[in-house]
Amino acid sequence: MLARIGIAALISLGFLGQAPVALAEQDHPVVVELYTSQGCSSCPPADAFLGVLAEHEDVIALGFHVDYWDYIGWRDVFGSPAFSARQKGYARAAGRRSVYTPQMIVQGDRDVVGNHPMDVTDLIQTYRDLPRDVTLTLQRSEGGIVRIRAEALRDPGGPLMVQVIRYQPEASVEITRGENAGNKLTYTNIVTDWQVLGEWDARAPFAAEVPAKGEKPVVVLIQHKGPGPIEAAARLR
Fold first, then answer.
1. What is the C-alpha to C-alpha distance for residues 215 and 237, in angstroms, rounded to an integer?
2. Domain residue spans in the chain?
3. pLDDT tens digits, residue range 170-201?
4. What is the spatial distance between Cα 109 and Cα 228, in angstroms, rounded to a whole number?
5. What is the pTM of this model?
6. Strand bridging mode 134-141 / 110-113
7. Relative to the CA of 42, which of 139, 152, 203, 228 has its CA 20 to 30 Å away?
């Protein structure tokens, strides 16, 4: 499946040629959200590329499965109306009336067609070295609790939404109907739970504790309302 992505695109992205590094060395991971559907024939190359991105610690790759393709004959087993609503929120914030799949949104700020890897990698490079106005740390404690701590280094320019996301690292699905009928497709970092903890004005440090809910990885995003640009992101595996 990677052949469909294009070797040149992978070579062009410098960090894809490097071994993954420890999470502690990555202070500013770039968030890539893929809006996809098992009922979309254009999505498998983007799903495969998300799997490539997920191997690298300086990217937090998240697969949001939407439900608006379900009507054509196959119900996406990971699809959620909440994820469709999140994608539509991005469209409204950008002044657009429609959504599409596969769509990748990078750092909550820019979007690109998900099966155009060169465009995606260019955006990732753009956001990798930008300074951050917010620091964020996560800690998993005994008793299945995740401690969240955040602090604004500078005024981020408005209230921020603190969100907790949990995902399933990988799953394969045999699709028997719809545009992808007859294919067994593998999906990566499948978002299973998205929770908005609340709004933070960033005037004082933020602290919260949430249940880990099992062994699934936990991601925290601190993002401008809209949804808009992501100021900070962190992950616990």
1. 8
2. 2-236
3. 999 999 999 999 999 999 999 999 999 999 99
4. 6
5. 0.89
6. unpaired
7. 228
